[in-house]
Amino acid sequence: MADGISSFWGPVTSTTECCEKNYASSSYIAEFYNTISNIPTILLALIGLVNALRQRFEKRFSVLHISNMILPIGSMLYHATLQHEQQQSDETPMIWEMLLYMYILYSPDWHYRTTMPTFLFLYGGTFAILHSVLRFDIGFKVQYVILCCICIPRMYKYYIYTDDKDAKRIAKLYVATLVLGSLCWLCDRFLCKEISHWSINPQGHALWHAFMGFNSYFANTFLMFCRAQQRGWAPKVVHFMGILPYVKIKKPKSQ
Description:
There is one protein chain. By secondary structure, this protein is mainly α. The chain contains 9 helices and 2 strands. Strands 1-2 form a two-stranded antiparallel sheet. A hairpin with a 3-residue loop joins strand 1 (about 235-240) and strand 2. The protein is globular and about 60 Å long. The mean pLDDT is about 90.
């Protein structure tokens, strides 16, 4: 929320602001909670990347985890500065990440190996250029929702074809964090006037970041399990420190 306080970054130039008082904690960080709430996403993506590299999963999963780290870094830059240029570093990677999910979800059944990645690459590049020039607002949000809706049915197909109870539980956690995160985002976006009168701001957008960090981790873990099943790698879900699930595989010696 704009409040006229002078800051290191100058006037707000982003097209979107959240329901958090600007520069309440520091003149260097516009939205403090919305900035630091990206840290769990980075840590979870790093854990996923280490697991993918250690067990030699396909490179697509390493790229996906790296994408999950780039996105929150861009989001931190945006929420710390509320500048239009940094807003692009938040929103454009969101579209790129969804295109990566589309590739991972649909590529196993795609018969023409080069057409899908070529199309998705051109789509992502074109969006980045147009978004930087035209400054999409509603158009960006609609596009992001459409890409999510394209991915969800495929996730459901993987869910119904998976018999492992632990993997299904991860898929349910994916849905739960998506729903809770979306509710937090909607409340922060559309109930800001009411929330601004409360004695404590629940920081709905920061909670959205936290929930979506776990959402991405659960989605990646479930997809890694399903892909390992497709490759015959005998996957099983184990838990780090008895809490955080990850996939452990056993590849045939020939691989």
